[in-house]
C-alpha cells in the first residue's frame, strides 16, 4: 500500500507541471511559450554555415 501511495505522489508531481492533452485548447496552446534555440545550437549553425561557404568557395576555385 505504501508503494502505491509513493508512486501516486510522484505521479502527481509530474502532472502538476504538465497540461494534459485532453485539456489543450487553442488559447492554452497559444499561451505556451516557444523555446528559443540555445546559444550552443546557434553557435553550431554559424560554424556550419561558415564551413559550408568555405567548401563552396574551394569547389568553385578548383573547378574554374
Helix-strand category: mainly alpha
Q: What is the global morphology? A: rod-shaped
Mean pLDDT comes to 77
Portion of residues in helices? over 70%
Strand content: under 5%
Keywords for this structure?
64 residues, mainly alpha, 73% helix, 0% strand
Describe the structure.
- This protein has a domain at 39-64.
- It has 3 helices and no strands.
- The protein has helices at 2-17, 26-31, 39-63.
- The longest helix has 25 residues, at 39-63.
What's the short story on this structure?
By secondary structure, the chain is mainly α. It has helices spanning 2-17, 26-31, 39-63.
What is this structure's SSE topology?
Layout: H1 2-17, H2 26-31, H3 39-63
